[in-house]
Write a structure and sequence with these properties.
By secondary structure, this protein is α/β, with parallel strands linked by helices. The chain has twelve helices and 14 strands. A five-stranded parallel beta sheet has the order 7-6-8-5-9, with helices on both faces. The radius of gyration is 25 Å and the shape is elongated.
Length: 327
């Protein structure tokens, strides 16, 4: 349920009982409304309605008895009513948070966050205003950092499934796109294997968006007509270095995610594989934040002079002639 109307300070009466009504009470209270509740039809008295500007119906279908219909008909004569059926509870939604900026979240992502009961979020997900995007939701940081893993991958999946099985709407919020080095496919499969309804909301991949933030296109007419995205989480083999050097020599672009720690190994391996020393390379740190910074060099200079030695994570590395377009 996405509250798009300004309700700060608005007197609101939530009608109903159970999880749906409790969910609405949390949402409107977190959005700044002054919330009261009535769980039975006979609680909808003139005194209960006194000063109320909005009546929100949070009834599950099974609760809508003849008595409730009579009470709602009476209320509708004097008050504005909003019926909030909401999506079914007990589900997992994998949400791609994009490169980290709130305004790059998709509309589907915003709606999923607003409807969530609990959000399990990663380190690179957009979290600065998460409490506003998901009013009333429980926020759990499961983001793995170098040397610090609050929860292992198996534990994250167990928590995600357990909360959904308990009837909660779980959002698994990840940076970028969940299917691009995000283990999203594994988490989706785990939820479905456990019999939990699960869906995916794609996100804008940092592999394309962060270079764009620095003015670097991953393709460019008559310059680069293909690009390769790799994970730098582990050092590459000689064969992989040779493959990437070949792709770059043929006019391609190589984008490296999670590659700060293995960057010296990557550049040295590409040179050994025959890549031209003058091949441009750029590192874009902290894309779409006030601290965004770009460092541009060539592969040979970066190795010889340790030009990129001071780069810190998170950063996206781009190799290829398209780097000059952004310069």
């Amino acid at each position: 349920m996405l509250i798009e109307t300004q309700v700060d300070g608005l007197p609101v009466l939530v009608l109903g009982s159970g999880e749906q009504a409790a969910r609405l009470e949390r949402r409107y209270a977190a959005a700044g409304a002054s919330v009261r509740t009535a769980s039975m039809p006979d609680g909808v008295t003139p005194a209960a309605l006194d000063g109320v500007a909005l009546v929100v119906v949070g009834l599950d279908p099974a609760e809508v008895s003849a008595d409730w219909e009579h009470a709602l008909a009476r209320v509708a004569r004097t008050h504005l009513i909003s019926r909030e059926p909401g999506p079914p509870a007990g589900q997992v939604t994998l949400v791609g948070g994009g490169p980290g900026a709130d305004d790059l979240l998709t509309i589907a992502a915003v709606h999923a966050l607003a409807a969530a009961d609990v959000i399990l979020f990663d380190r690179l997900a957009p979290t600065d205003h998460l409490a506003d995007l998901a009013p009333g939701a429980e926020l759990i940081d499961v983001g793995k950092r170098p040397g610090h893993h609050p929860l292992g991958q198996a534990e994250i999946e167990e928590l995600m499934i357990a909360r959904a099985a308990a009837g909660q709407r779980v959002v698994r919020l990840k940076g970028g796109d969940p299917f691009v080095f995000g283990r999203g496919a594994e988490e989706l499969a785990a939820a479905r294997a456990a019999g939990v309804p699960a869906r995916l909301v794609p996100g804008i991949s940092a592999s394309i968006a962060v270079p764009a933030a620095a003015g670097i296109p991953v393709t460019y007419r008559d310059l680069s007509h293909h690009f390769t995205v790799i994970s730098g989480h582990h050092p590459l083999s000689d064969d992989e270095h040779a493959h990437l050097a070949r792709a770059l020599t043929l006019g391609g672009t190589v984008v490296v995610l999670m590659g700060v720690g293995t960057l010296p190994h990557l550049l040295a391996g590409l040179l050994r594989a025959g890549l031209a020393r003058e091949t441009p390379v750029a590192a874009i740190e902290r894309g779409y934040t006030p601290d965004q910074a770009s460092t541009v060099s060539s592969v040979g200079d970066a190795v010889a002079e340790a030009t990129l030695a001071g780069i810190s994570s998170p950063a996206v590395i781009v190799l290829g002639d398209v780097v000059r377009v952004g310069g």
